[in-house]
Amino acid sequence: MTTENEPGSVLPVPNTLPAPPTKFAADPAPVSGNAAPSPIREYLSKRGSGSLADNSFAAVMLLCACSIFAIVLFILGILIVHSHQSLVQFGWKFFTRQAWDPVSGDFGALPFIYGTLATSFLALLMAVPLALGVAIFITELCPQRLRAPISFLTELLAAIPSVVYGLWAVFVLVPIMRDQLGPFLYKTLGWTGFFEGANFGVGLLTASIILAIMILPIISSLTRDIMNAVPNSQREAVLALGATRWEMIRIGVLRNSRIGIVGAIMLGLGRALGETMAVTMVIGNHPDIAKSLFAPGYTLASVIANEFSEATGDLYLSALIEIGLALFLVTIVVNAVARLMVWAVTRNAPARVN
Amino acid sequence: MNFQSKSMRLNTAWRSAANYLVSGLSILATVLVILPLLAILFYLLYKGTSSLNWAFFTHIPAPVGESGGGMANSIVGSGIILLLASLMGVPIGIAAGVYLAEFGRGRPFATAVRFTADVLNGVPSIVMGIAIYSLIVMQQKHFSALAGGVALAIMMVPTITRTTEEMLATVPHAIREAALGLGVPKWRTVLSVSLRTASPGIITGCMLAFARVAGETAPLLFTAFGNQFWSFKLNEPIAALPLQIYVYAISPYDEWHRLAWAGSLVLIVLIMVSVTLVRIFANRGVLKGAS
Asked: What homologous superfamily is domain B58-290 in, according to CATH?
């Protein structure tokens, strides 16, 4: 900026220059020979590239990126504010109480937590082996020609809306459960105690089956991506040692990608925990904790969907919003952990070249 | 052949049996997965086509007990809500993606945004519904199409952001540098070089987000709420296809079940056609040579 004590200055700056250095003293002419940024560059960086337009463009983009943070914080904030009454009245006990009595204003979330966990884990139990099988088939065994159509078909499953799954479940799956699968399970596995009692076709098991169908494409497509991220040299190395194809998959592929696969499963879990419509339509909607999987149940999401619009009274509403808050926090944690796991594997991995 | 002892041969036999077993199981799994998909699609096609008629597209729902009626108002309502959601969600999503890819490369802040977007993607849609209910519906004191649009827009943002970022990352640096080297300002470079080059992928991403929210019911339950009559006002409850399907599916009337099947078929066809059309457009269009 100032030119007075510049040692490298070639031309001595005459002291007779009229003005002391002010903001605008750096007139291009006198400083042209100095080591300070060349006037041309200064000119270009100030005007040539439209610094105002550039900066405002960058600012707008930054603002939009920040809005993603804002959305998450805003959801969290608004849920806390509106569930305040229930938070104060019941405290932590809310999650361990079994009562759900809107008339006398007595609320506890345990039956819903049980229903959510039971259906989600059953769904995972059914979906994970199938999803892994599909992923292994697509990445390792499938002829090249079939690869794209099969991936497309499994991803088509993900494009079907939840409410359509529910509709199908109500009119196809429920009768099958009631008339064929249910009696069969009772006959063969009734002694375990999990398949007892009246079987109306709706209940925890039916909800789990429809959930399993819904989370399958998520888990299998993510697992496929993760297995594709394993470099071919790993496969070749194991094969070169004389391994069979299964040993190659087990040692070379699955072992390398296990963290990512666990992450993919957890993402499926996150989806299962929050799935609403299809589950609401077939779970029976009864706040009860029963050992039998034929028994009707209730999940966190389906109690909100079912009772929110008819909730009378502030406490009832705030109890339902607190359930929403719990669901939000749990899915955030599950998703965050799962994402970290998937990232750990697929980040920086070059795409596999077939 | 005496290369192998007996135990070695047994071992080899066991290993190859395990190999075939696992291959068979994984083929079986694939069949088991594709089976319900085909079952759902064919049953839907069978039920839906037999109950679709012209009245479905031109009439509003008939009162209980009367036959006929359609979902014309729901189709239009869904269109309005989705248009609103796209108008809000697409620009924000793309802009956030541009920030991540063009301005925030390697900064911790960008990593945090990326991570938050991924996490937001997994937030249950019903939670979005009650959050928007608390924010907009409680203040306005009535349900509205606008609230439904905002809820869906929020659900679109993370998907669009992540695809935009991924697509921009595939644009070669040389193209950007060429533009910058000609003295094109950065904002101009981003808009007419980077975004333009990546546009097929970005359009596909937007369509996927669109298809995802088009079938969403849960966030609309307490925001758009549904309506049995024509409504074009953004400030009033509005009908939506998924909502109407839900209401009809859990109703006890056969006539309504019929309409629910027809509605599901229309919804799926709408989703699939929009996705496929854009895929074709994006693959064949003028933009293909750009990448």
From this structure: MetI-like (1.10.3720.10)
